[in-house]
Amino acid sequence: MPEILRAVGATERWLIVVIVVICLGLSLATDTFLTLVNLFDLLNYSAVNLIFAAGLLVVLIAGGIDISFAVAASVVQYLVVTILMQIGGGNWAIGLLLAGLIGFSLGAINAALIHHFRLVSIVVTIATFNLFFGLLMFFTGGVSIYALPGWLSRRIILFEHETRSGWAEITLPVLVMVVMLAATWFMLRRLNLGRQLFAMGDNPEGARRLGINIGAMHYLAYGWLGLCAGIAGLMQVNYAREVVPNALYGRELEVLAAVVLGGARLGGGRGTLLGAVLGLALVSITQNGLNLLGVSPFAFRMIVGLIILIAISMSSETLRGLTEGLRRRRIREAQS
Q: Which of 57, 59, 103 is nearest to 79 (CA)?
């Protein structure tokens, strides 16, 4: 354990320690937390949020913010299932392709509004959040879809083990989550595109002077989050075996809190995938533990709000410090 902690950043080390402490406390407070059934259920449930987190991390690194992705995933669910039923059901390849394309398109709408009209990302995504959800509820009437293609309604079990408390299972969303996390890591850490995203988030004007296409980076960041949202939405359908218009409503705050808790800076230019995963693990474990202990779910909402408030405060202080440092350096350069 000490060697592992030294190999990661300070934020990740802190999160690992906190997660271990909380898990030990919950294992003593309840008999059901530290069981294979509960841990696997937690992993299956969190797979969708982890896919969301991978996409949101890219946007935050690029210096933006997006709170419309969960609603976009709900829109993708309805559109994909409706299209598939009209063409005879389709298969996994068609379903994932449609989900990715529609999700990317919805993300590109945000990118176009932010880049071409020079709008603030939080304002744009609040608007599209309400636009997407309003259109979804208007055209569907809030009615759920239960008639799914056979391949989509079947739960695909990758691993199962019988225990005294029941069957512990790992399902398909976990595999898709691993693939999306790996793809996001590869883009951020092994491709030049990832370095450009970090550069734009850290200093947009400097990145522009270096020849980085800021517009393309906006489309990449928000499009990637849209793609992740679309695939996550399809996995949620497979997990729940139904399409519910408001099933993902509110997930955006959980994921945002988790990613910023993992070290992603709201001002851009900083963040790691490991931190995002650990942040989401901490949020999900806390929620699961409160449920097992019979604590009101409103307590969890308060915790999420507190995390976001602290993250915004810390990011604001950091941004003010950076701005002041740049101002002082320019004054010294002018005097010399």
A: 103
* Residue 114 three-state SS: helix
**What tokens does 226 get?**
């849209």
Q: Is the pTM of this model over 0.85?
A: yes
Give residue-wise pLDDT tens across range 71-107. Answer: 999 999 999 999 999 999 999 999 999 999 999 999 9
Classify residue 321 as exposed, middle or buried by CB count within 10 Å of its CB (0-12, 13-18, 19+). Answer: exposed
Tell which residue, 24, 40, 48, has the closest CA to residue 289: 24
Compute the distance between CA of residue 259 and CA of residue 256 in angstroms, rounded to an integer. 5
Q: What one-letter code names the amino acid at 247?
A: A
| Chain Cα centroid distance, residue 155 | 23
Rounded distance, CA 173 to CA 181, Å?
12
pLDDT at 292: 93
